[in-house]
Amino acid sequence: MLRMKALLLLAVTTMAFTMMFAGCSGVTETATGNGVGTTPPVDTTLPSSPTGLTGAAAGSTGANLSWSASTDNVGVTGYIVRRNGVQVAAPATTSFADTGLFAATTYSYTVAARDAAGNLSPDSASMSVTTASAADTTPPTTPTGLTGAAVGSTGANLSWSASTDNVGVTGYIVRRNGVQVATPATTSLADMGLSAATTYSYAVAARDAAGNISPNSTSVSVTTASAADMTPPTTPTGLTAAVAGSTGANLSWSASTDNVGVTGYIVRRNGVPVATPSTTSFADTGLSAATTYSYTVAARDAAGNISPNSASVSVTTPPPQPSNSASLAWDAVTAAANLSGYRVYFGSAPGTYLQPLGQGISVGNVTAYTLTGLASGSLYYFAVTAFDTLGMESPYSNEVSKNIP
């Protein structure tokens, strides 16, 4: 029994053998057989290197990669993606979406192919991707200093101080009564097409390129003017004129009326405007002596409407004063039904006149008079009285004086 076991062991042992054969390369290769069959040859052929690698940023935190497929003697099973030289993925297809990146950062990528035997191709040519900047979520500052002014009856001019932004302000949003009406790029706006005599409320907000919008500014109100006034004032009446010495004329007239309001008058001398008083009188000066002037007056209102000219009145200035003379003028006495005229008194001392009361120089019913023949180098004092047809005489007027050169 023992002998049989030994023979059986010998038989099994003699079935093991080693085969030596020369490969195609001339190098001797060894294959071990077990008497049943042979193992397949090992795959040592590398896949081809991937080509056509492209990449594009996907927002601020990602990159999309793609490339052309590699080839292999057996078959490509996948790819190895390296970012900045470090493997980050092993996709089976020819594309890869890399995520979790930093904003505004440049990354370098390569791709290699692999097969089932674990053979790796050389890396592809590298390419770079720069991610976008991080999303801007900061709104601009609120506009300040908003002001508004009416432009006639149908418009409003607005202006404000510029806002600031962490990136940059691109424009503004103007709201009228809470509704957006304009998006100017500058810090002013002319809002037109409004209704007359109407109050509007305005606010302004700033915006940036990312679409962030600031809070509204403090509001400002603008009230447009009433509709255009096309009605002229009435024509001035009662124009009168009186000479004032040899170089002046005093004018007065009755006030005009207007549907809104008279703002002033236009005085024309010989057809040419010479003054624009706001009252119903005017003292024209700088005239030539012994000359006749014609005057008219027209009224005007705030809208620029002008009435027709009044009836004209003429004034003739007297000749120049003779030497050693004094010209006097005074206001007419009113409420004197029996007024006869005026008397002029003068003397060389205050309150003391050369003519006794009642014997002054009677000048008639006029309000101006020139005294001549006065002594050179003397100071004279003058007063005027009024007297009526019954011989009653008023007290002296206020006293004036003149130094005769």
Q: Which percent range fits the helix content?
A: under 10%
- Main β-sheet, spatial strand arrangement: 6-5-8-9
Beta-strand portion reads: 35-45%
* Helix-strand topology string: HEEEEEEEEEEEEEEEEEEEEEEEEEEEEE
- Backbone shape: rod-shaped
Helix run count: 1
Structural classification: mainly beta
Q: What does the largest sheet look like?
A: 4 strands, antiparallel
Q: In angstroms, what is the radius of gyration?
A: 57 Å
> Would you report the number of β strands?
29
Average per-residue pLDDT, rounded, comes to: 89
Query: Stretches where pLDDT falls below 50 for ≥5 residues?
Result: 1-36
- How far apart the termini lie comes to 182 Å
Structure report:
- By secondary structure, the protein is mostly beta strands.
- 3% of the residues lie in helices and 45% in strands.
- It contains 1 helix and 29 strands.
- The strands form 9 sheets. It has a 4-stranded antiparallel β-sheet with strand order 6-5-8-9, with no helix packed on it. Strands 13-12-15-16 form a 4-stranded antiparallel β-sheet, with no helix packed on it.
